[in-house]
Amino acid sequence: MSYTFSCTNDWVFTDTELKASPSSKKGISWDQELELRKNGIIFYESLAKIFRVPRQAIATGKQLFHRFFIRESFTDHDKYLVAATCLFLSAKAEDHPLSVHNFAEHYIAQRKEVTMEFALRYHTVEMIAEAILQKEYIVLHTLAFDLDVEFPHLLLSDKIDSLVDLHTHLSVAEKEALTNTMMKNSWSFLNDCSRTPLCLRLTAEEIAAGAAYLAGTIDDTIPCTIRTKDGENWEYVLSDNQNSLIDSATMILEVYVSINEATLSPSIVKLLNMFHPYRDLDPMPDAIMAPKKPSTLDDGVDTDFESDVTTPPADRTLFDDEFDGVIHISRKRSMEEYDMASPPFSPCSPPYSPCTPPYATSEKRPRCV
């Protein structure tokens, strides 16, 4: 699918530029890079929850993490240490500084639950604190000390208010309820897509417009009969460029494409059928596909590269009883285990709901005619 955006700042890239990242030049496929980014952000969110970091600082650090790995390769840096460092740095930048030793102590505890390789090595708080401070300098240098971040969350209120104002037949209480519903759904979309490098592809304005558009489209929250004062479809309030608006919504929903539909709410599945109707098609035969670049990684294996902190392994005999003599190199926690503040992949309905049947062909486009 081709998109209709142009780059307007130093941190917005084209699809071609994103997929030509430093990681791709070292044998990591784009799908693997997306998985590495997602796992790094999930770990980031688990730490942020422990320290009750303000939302603005959380949003800042996520963008710093994605920016860092558009200039550096995952093969050269420990994604978990980078994620923790971005959180530590963003909290400091947003006037919520954290004690580095206390932060390092919780980092060690969280990291041991994520990767067994880390748990089998000896780490001290002083060692990890020093590694975080060193990585902080590397992150700042890599980003050219540019910590200026735009937040699509701050743009939602005006966009949703403009949509709610189109409902002239609603009472004040009904408008307030509609506003709350759309704000909740929009925030859920923004929280979910923050695990992808969408902030490197779209501006904050475009992301906010796409999230508001999805909030109005999901479950027909805003009926197609609603029109602007000029008689146009309601989505024209968000953007005059309808192709750009649909592309924004499509890219936000890409975070759900690789998820098993059985774990998604029917509302999300319905949106996927509208914006990604061909996602379930079988891949092209190898004979007609472009040659695949050799990869240094095993397909299907969630990579976890060597930690930046090199320490001697612990005595494995101490762990024989606990792990039945089998040493697992890496174990990733599921999103449910992290007990996220916002429900992943489901802004409206609980997860694990049965999915709805696919849309008919005539209903695949989300536009009102």
From TrEMBL:
One of its GO terms (molecular function) is cyclin-dependent protein serine/threonine kinase regulator activity. GO terms for biological process: regulation of transcription by RNA polymerase II. CDD domains: CYCLIN_SpCG1C_ScCTK2-like_rpt2 (cd20546). InterPro entries: Cyclin-like_sf (IPR036915), Cyclin/Ssn8 (IPR043198), Cyclin_N (IPR006671). Signal peptide: none annotated. Residues 33-147 form the Cyclin N-terminal domain. Residues 339-369 are annotated as: Disordered. Residues 344-357 have a biased composition (Pro residues). This is Cyclin N-terminal domain-containing protein. The lineage of its organism: Eukaryota, Sar, Stramenopiles, Oomycota, Saprolegniomycetes.
